[in-house]
Specification:
30% strand, Immunoglobulin-like, 10 strands, 230 residues, alpha+beta, 2 domains, 6 helices, 39% helix
Length: 230
């Protein structure tokens, strides 16, 4: 998708090179727009529009529709927020262990005894950070062994810049690179909060080095957390 990659490159350019200087660039752009409107008025462009209303409408209406639709798709996610609070596997395991059912006679078998004695624990952990000033990201990333051989990626105290088509990945690269080799866990559930992603069985978690929030459609990294042994 070359066209979509162009949008991604443009977003990266704006985020990396322009956004840090937004307080200077914004007033300059405002002055430029005012200057352009003044020049258009002085050369009589408004009279041309009044004398040719149909032609002007044929040009202006489609441009306005495209601008509104595109602006809503590309820009609205930047200020839309969502919140989700899912129970931690650690808290769930602690509650199950403390419950009377955990000490029931049904646990007398070998398998049941092993499950009853197993305590969920954090295997890997790290902290999210944004890819730049614009694509902010913060919070904790935990890989928790919720059951023997079963792992969950947990986001806690999480917040990230919203955007279109955001997905969560696991990577073998500490900096969240090598997209083609990453494991897709699904769409980002929320921009803020705490939530879980089940890691498919058979994945060697010892090879996982980072958790990533990635704009799949435009190939832009929003945030990543380098994971280390807890």
């Amino acid at each position: 998708m070359p066209l979509l990659n162009i949008f991604g490159d443009l977003e990266t350019l704006i985020a990396d090179d322009l956004y840090p200087y937004r307080y200077v660039i914004t007033p300059l752009l405002a002055l430029a727009l005012v200057g352009a409107a003044f020049v258009a008025y002085r050369i009589g462009l408004h009279r041309v529009v009044v004398r040719n209303p149909i032609r002007s409408a044929v040009v202006a209406v489609p441009l306005t529709i495209v601008a509104v639709v595109a602006g809503n798709y590309f820009l609205s996610p930047l200020w839309e927020r969502s919140f989700l609070d899912e129970r931690s596997p650690l808290a769930a395991a602690a509650a199950d262990t403390a419950s009377p059912a955990a000490e029931s006679p049904s646990d007398s078998s070998t398998g049941g005894a092993q499950m009853a004695s197993f305590m969920a624990s954090t295997a890997l952990s790290g902290m999210f950070r944004g890819s730049d000033d614009f694509h902010f990201g913060r919070g904790d990333a935990l890989i928790i062994e919720s059951e023997p051989g079963k792992y969950v990626l947990r986001f806690e105290n999480f917040s990230v810049r919203n955007g279109p088509d955001l997905y969560v990945y696991l990577s073998e690269d500490p900096d969240g690179k090598g997209v083609t080799e990453m494991l897709n866990l699904g769409k980002l559930k929320a921009t803020d909060g705490a939530f879980n992603y089940e890691i498919p069985s058979g994945i060697d978690v010892s090879k996982i080095k980072s958790a990533i929030v990635w704009c799949k459609q435009f190939a832009v990294l929003f945030a990543h957390a380098t994971l280390m042994e807890a």
